[in-house]
Hints:
The protein is mainly α. The protein is about 40% helix and about 5% strand. A hairpin with a 2-residue loop joins strand 11 and strand 12. The longest helix is centred in the first third of the chain and has 25 residues, at about 140-165.
Amino acid sequence: MKAKKYILSCLTAGLVATAFHSCVDIEPKSMSFLTPENTFVDRAGLETMLRLCRKQMNFEWFGDAFNSGNCETFCVYEYAWSDLAVMGGPETKEIHNMVTQLTPSTNMYLHLRYWVWAWNGIKYANTVITRSPEAKGMASEEDRNACLAEGYFHRAYWYYLLVNQFGDVPWIGEEITQAKLDFNTVSRKTILRNIKSDMEYAVQWLPENVIRGAVSRAAGEHLLAKICLANGDFQEAADAATRCIENYGLHLMTNRFGVNVSDPTKDVYNDLFNEDNISLPENAEAIMVGQERYGIEGCSSPSGSRRKRNFVPQWHAGAKVKTPDGKNGTTDAKGIYDGYEQLELLGRGLAKIRPTNYAQFGIWKDCGTDMRHNSNNWFDRSRITYNLPPSKGGSAKYFGQPVDPKYCTDTMRCYFSFPIVKVLVSKDDPNAGGNVPVGGFTDQYIFRLAETYLNRAEAYWWMGKNAQATEDVNAIRRRVNAPELTSVTLDDILDERARELFIEDHRKSELTRIACLKAERGDEGYSMDNFSEKNWYYDRIMEKNNFFAEEYYYSTNAFIMKPYHVWWPIPRNAIESNTEGRINQNYGYDGYEDNIPVEELEKRY
Length: 605
């Protein structure tokens, strides 16, 4: 049998990297016995592509946001352009002024990471979707339908992100096996309807019981609930979330479990994020898990999570962190000596993500005995100490004492608080206990039942069912001994998501989703007619993100955002390489003036 040529579509080719500017024809070599025609013929063959789909999701959560290769924790951009954080480093590497730095030809990767990896994820999913019905070696229709259902899941996962990051984008509904230059933009609402229909099918056929790391029916219900929320189908969202909560043996973990169960100094929230506990069978809160283990071939990031590097302050910059008597106060110097313990614990943070006042203080106001903010789970900046020994030039008087922020010349990057359980990862890190640990290997919740409760709470809130919404939020709060609320608002639900789901959900995408709902409904004077000029997303950023609201000046640049940044720019090379179709640019960015109305473009797809 002659093998089909596999041709990387010009849409993907124009996105993956600047090295690809045209279609690439990859002809299978005669020495290879693995071709699509003899590989994707049964469930085992299609499972190889499904494993690639699952691995594609891991790239969001593991690695270094700025390293080249497969080491990009690009979920940081979902936080940096939200109410919770900004990019912490200098603007030579990171975007502060979104007007001048976030453009269709931006060469700093950033939002392009999601564009590239989403289309690759859709490409892999479409291979499964197209090949499953054709596979002749399936043992049963149940196997065929299960593969097709998981393919739909992965395509829906990436499209959900694309339409809440970029808005209207092309719809690709099948495997592409020949050169294609005629992609056309499709409306966000059409895509949401498509993936909702796909997921309604998927939840009928996804298996209920799977190994950790695979996609279960509960994961399908969870994603379906999110899509229904985006569509404004609130009762259907609540129904899908309820099925996820009640039908698959899941429950919030309210009792101690796992490797530290006998340690009285720990608590159940700490247990939830222990590296050894996330994939435990007894962890009934885990719906879907991404797995990364040191030394296992095929990890998304060979360097581990790099979370200490991305989310911990640059506390070790001794020239910026001075003692009151004028000496350098901290260090990450090599070698073990007095004061090294702080380096081993915190790692060599670079503050690529810098939390806002809202994230550090606002959401913790009146938190009472909330265990998420106790010393097990929250690292208060007052715990950073001067660790440069006198023998190395430090201060004998202040060595080991808490850093005094009055003598820290860069409190933006060197001095802030952060959540311990999500960030201080050290297990199986090749550098753990070494000179400059940057964050080790850990499994990652892709979906966790706590989010399902909060998704349902929001669905109830939109329907005016405030008592049910309040009970779902309080179910999360009771588990962590937080004071219960009497009647929740949308702000309360978003505050709870910020406390509970940091480095788990897609914060920017969820805020944009809500902004679209408010505009579609005409709430509070918002409208889709002028969405990129006036929207709830921007107004919330201006209310909660002190850096963008104040246009805070750091290094040689200010943090600036405008309403049109609710959507990220479509990469210029994706538009220009698509010579026989039209991919529209978003309002506010160069190229928008050449747009064709999306209603006209939809007639072509």
